[in-house]
Amino acid sequence: MSGFFVVLLIANYMLALTVILSVLRQRKEPMAMLCWIMAVLILPFLGTLLYWLIGSAWVVRRTRRRRRRVARQIAMLEAWARQQADGTGEEPDFPEDLRAIAGLGRRLSDLPATRQNAVEIYQESEVTFAALEDAMRAAKHHIHAEYYIWRADETGYFFRDLLIDKARSGVECRVLLDSVGSFSIGRKFTRPFTDAGGKIAFFMPLRPFRKNISPQLRNHRKIVVIDGQVGFIGSQNIGDEYRGRLKKLSPWYDTHMRVAGPAALVLQRAFCEDWLFATRQDLSGQDYFPEPARPGRSIVQILPTGPEQNINPLEQIMFAAVSSAKDKIRIATPYFVPSPALRMAFTYACTRGVTVELVLPTRSDALIVLWAGRSFYRELLERGVKIYEYDGGVLHSKLVTVDDRWCMLGSANMDMRSFRLNYEVTALIYDQAVTRELAASIDRFCHRARVISLRELRERPSYYEVIEGTARLLTPLL
């Protein structure tokens, strides 16, 4: 028996050595590299398994290769989106500072800011779902829906049945779900939809022995596009919990946006690229990228981001937003684990006299992330950042407003998972009226929230610091 354990011990350290060599080649953040090395040394076999499942870059490389294999079709989608959304190809007329942000967004995503969009902001879940229902019922050619979470509950069945009715009436209905976020969805739920003619696909399914299995690279986007003319984007998934119907997660606050106009075509491009990646079905063409209506005055830039992008565009945009603010920047996010670069940007902004306000939840469905975020409070407060914790429910909105002149809204959190691992989509809205509407909603959260002070942090029991420090240690692995 002792000889057997010796063999296991040798095998474990051989595997650990393989992992350590792989970690050293990846050029990750030093703390993340150290955490993985410690994990494989301290947790025999389990650390190695976790690394190959969620830490290794091989899945990212395979994702990039698969994207390259469909590069021609993706290029066609981009061409259709640019041609139809951009119109004449002229850049919107921006002030110099906003032109710099929009130019950065275009260079990072190769997608333009689009003019003459009509934007509606929804702060209440019932209003969001009602607007979504109305848009789906009005669909004439197609409905494209992409969600991280779609629950098999009353809300999930309602929208599934609505899509079944539309599919039976001849409308093309496609639903793309993340295989981890929508893990509870089974054939009993999907079969009536597919029998009616609807199409459903799961992003990177978690199937045994599948080459592209990846628990950590998830599609966190929330997109709906109707007939290529109307789009929805924001933080709200499909499920009862998002209506505040689950007692422990109630009330629940999300922010969503309806956009009509050229920006809807850019959302369409994001959906079609993801659908192509998941199913190999090409949806480029006039039926899906029609000549857009131009019903409003808002300038909107859609920024899809994902792990195959080496340049981390979302983090760069956030860094630029904080660094370029002249008066005030407000950020509301449910998950807050800022990178060193963002913490430096916060410090720089406060030093310049810019007001930086963070609105974070007191309650969360991800406790490790909640405590990890709190571990940064002291450092940020000492540099002048104002921090509010909202305890009136689960704050799930992901909002940024800059100087009451432009804003960001979408699916991305303020953490490294959203910046580097998840597929996210964010709308940059260059419209003062929309920005002030979102800023007012953040102000309402602030007025009902608890102000975090340095004195409060210093007077807390020491075990809080231990919990926060432990959670922070795990942040490179989150």
Computed structural class: alpha/beta
Shape: globular
Biggest sheet statistics:
15 strands, mixed
Oligomer state equals single chain
Distance between the termini: 37 Å
Quick check: average pLDDT? 85
Query: How many β-strand stretches?
Result: 17
Instruction: Give the count of helical stretches.
Output: 18
CATH class of the largest domain: Alpha Beta
| Strand coverage percent | 15-25%
What is the helical fraction, as a range of percent?
Answer: 40-55%
The CATH homologous superfamily of the largest domain is termed Endonuclease Chain A
Gyration radius, in Å: 23 Å
| Low-confidence spans | none
What count of structural domains? 3
Query: Remind me, CATH topology of the largest domain?
Result: Endonuclease, Chain A
Q: Going across the major beta sheet, what is the strand order?
A: 4-3-2-5-6-8-1-9-16-15-14-10-11-12-17
At CATH's second level, what is the architecture of the largest domain? 2-Layer Sandwich
Can you characterise this structure?
With 478 residues, this protein is of the alpha/beta class. The protein is 47% helix and 19% strand. The chain has helices spanning 2-26, 30-42, 46-55, 58-69, 71-86, 96-109, 125-137, 154-168, 187-195, 262-279, 313-324, 340-351, 367-374, 377-382, 416-421, 432-447, 454-459, 462-474, and strands at 113-122, 142-147, 172-178, 199-203, 223-226, 230-234, 252-253, 256-260, 298-305, 328-332, 355-361, 386-390, 394-395, 399-402, 406-410, 424-430, 450-451. The strands form two sheets. Strands 4-3-2-5-6-8-1-9-16-15-14-10-11-12-17 form a 15-stranded mixed beta sheet, sandwiched between helices. A two-stranded parallel ribbon has the order 7-13. The radius of gyration is 23 Å and the shape is globular. The two termini are 37 Å apart.
